[in-house]
Amino acid sequence: MSFKTWTEEHKTLWQFIKFNVLSNISTITRFVCTWVGTAIFINGMQLNGPFKFWLFDYTTAGSNYLGGFITFLIAEVLAQVVNFFVQMFWVFDSDTSFKDAAWKYALLAVLIVVVNLILPSYVTAFCQSTFGWDAGLSGTVASAVNTLAAVVVSFPLLKFWIMPDSKDKKADKAE
């Protein structure tokens, strides 16, 4: 059996493998932005005033205050933009209209960004208080936790709601 035949016969599994492997492009984006943001907003600009708005609580030293919030906001937004294009064109090879997929993905991204902005302050504070880790390492762990949470929610929504196979594409494959 050729690799092409295998991928055609196991399409969902192959998409899940590609999803996990190629999602690392957005993960790398998130990590790099976290490291750069930590250097700029936390260590460089010393944006260390407490920040609290709605569900976002960056009021403890372990959360890295306003600098931590800004760092994770920028990292998450850029990671989601990168991820949309990766998923649309490389993972699902979707023929769904860009407009239809974009608004649905935007909803998913908002959900992911909100969760990923709430979670880091708690994960970072936990890592710093429990293990004594510095802001950079704690932020990296928080980014990894965010990534795992996003995978569990994202794949099924992307496959079945945001970027599903079109009826025409399914009909062509059935013939």
Keywords:
single chain; 175 residues; mainly alpha; two-stranded antiparallel sheet; 2 strands; 3% strand; elongated; transmembrane
Question: How are the SSEs ordered, and which strands pair?
Answer:
Elements: H1 3-9, H2 11-44, E1 51-53, E2 56-58, H3 65-91, H4 98-131, H5 135-162, H6 167-174
Antiparallel strand pairs: 1-2
Helix pairs in contact: 2-3, 2-5, 3-4, 4-5
Keywords: Membrane, Transmembrane, Transmembrane helix
Transmembrane segments: 21-45, 65-90, 102-123, 143-162
Protein name: PTS cellobiose transporter subunit IIC
What does this structure look like?
The chain has a two-stranded antiparallel sheet with strand order 1-2. The protein is 79% helix and 3% strand. It has one domain (27-63, 74-174). It has helices at 3-9, 11-44, 65-91, 98-131, 135-162, 167-174, and strands at residues 51-53, 56-58. With 175 residues, it is mainly alpha-helical. The protein contains 6 helices and 2 strands; from the N terminus they run H-H-E-E-H-H-H-H. Keywords: Membrane, Transmembrane, Transmembrane helix. This is PTS cellobiose transporter subunit IIC. The chain crosses the membrane at residues 21-45, 65-90, 102-123, 143-162.
